[in-house]
Amino acid sequence: MAYRRTPAVQARLDAQREAVLQSAVLLLAERGYGGCTMAAVADRAGIATGSLYQHFANKAELSVQLFRRVVTREIDAVNAALAQRDTPQQRIAAVVETFATRALRARRLAYALLVEPADAVVDGERLVFRRAFRDVIAAEIAAAVAGGELPEQDPVLTAAALVGAVGEALAGPLATAPRQSGDQHSGDRQSSDQLSSDRQSSDRHSGADASHSDTLHSDNTTVVPALVSFTLRALGGRDDSDA
Q: Which of 78, 122, 164, 226 could, after both became Cys, cross-link 118 (CB 3.0–4.6 A)?
């Protein structure tokens, strides 16, 4: 007779799986995929490594679920920003601004999501991620073209080019992310809406942290506006500096 889990057992396993994923996101934000081993995740979650394999067959399977969890948050954040803008051009700008700002606020995690060498299955998820953002932008480009806000163009091709350009532009700043900690932690610890929250370490106000904070502020005030301006001009639209 096949064993059937009781509701209580299933609830316990579901809670354990959730704790594992939260722990894995935090580790990914600190150490990247290389440091997100099965043993390290199990240790952070406070369970035996063998118990972790009850939920995920291997690191590749865990990495896929981890990637999807964080990416879903990012897409939700972009959609929330879109809902607050009125015109297609404003919504396109909101996509770029929201994505870039959140990436620069959680560089180590964004680096892992976008460019860090990883398993082939993660590369496959990255392609799905890029296509999701492409489709969001393409829909707004099509609406802007139909409304006469932008010149005639192929919305999907243009959107794909923009996603690639924005990702490449962010690769440099993200590559300078601290490789262990020093970055803001994942929002799984405090808020499901934010990619990361402020570090709570005792050296929060040290000179190193102040320098890191200055760099983040500099990038947010220069890189992000430049990316938004580039995006609108590449589309054939106008940004505020053209007024």
A: 122
